[in-house]
Amino acid sequence: MPSPAQLTQLLVEFVFLLLGALLVFLAVTHQINFVPSGTPWLVISVALLVWGLLAFAKAGARSLRLQKWIRGSSLVLLGIIMLSMMHVPFLWVGTLLVVAGFVLVARGLAGILLILRQR
Questions:
Q1: Counting C-beta atoms within 10 Å of the first and last residue's C-beta, which end of the chain has fewer, N or C?
Q2: Pair 28, 96: CB distance under 8 Å
Q3: At CA 99, angle to CA 83 and CA 5, rounded to 5?
């Protein structure tokens, strides 16, 4: 039986998995249509980059190093994708949303597998 901490971690990773699947679905079906520009978009992108880099810097157990690496790299990658959305033609925004969704799905799946492997 997983501990309460592991159940919470599983729930968080499952939310990332669902969020990524929703983002992919909305981008593929063209239900999302926006122009990523402005200060709020820039602030969120930079915040994701910083949050991802801080995930690498925090001390933690050696056994959790791979989980930390996956979490940090996914946040950095999402920040880079969001920043790049500001500078690409509008036709590419949907494709970048799909890529961002797949990053979230991959992070969720990898996190779930690593948590279940710990048991």
A1: N
A2: no
A3: 95
